[in-house]
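#lab-general

N.A. 3:47 PM
ok so I finally got the sequence cleaned up, no stray characters, all 145 residues accounted for. can someone with queue access submit it? mine expired

B.Y. 3:52 PM
send it over

N.A. 3:53 PM
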Amino acid sequence: MSNNIKFVASYTATADASVEDIWAIWADINNWDKWDSGIEHSAIEANFKAGNSFSLTPRGGEPIQVTLKTVTQGEEFSDEAVLPFGVIRNLHRISKIGKQISLTHEVQAEIAPEASGFFSKEIWPHMQGGLPESVNNIINIVQED
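B.Y. 4:20 PM
back already:
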């Protein structure tokens, strides 16, 4: 099948927050740079629904097109960026645990073998390392309100 090298990382945190507040932050793609320091700019002109695409500029990088693959209101969404060297997928999930919520961000990358060395040294550490910060930033934003 595919000889691509796979990378997977995930981070989950629990908090006193509402699903609606978290969802509102996620659905506001134009303001993702407020909670994800790895994003320089992001913009969507369509609705936050599966099949629609948006532009995302990683900090210090070039804009890329990202497609919303799944959107289940108040539960989860996933997106995918098909790049010359591979595919990067993100899954964002909310679930209720009693009076708290559990918030998860998982990133998966399938990278061409010839690009995997560069990716693993220059890109992946930032993506993987940014997961706790971005999840905790979202929680901090909703708890400040």
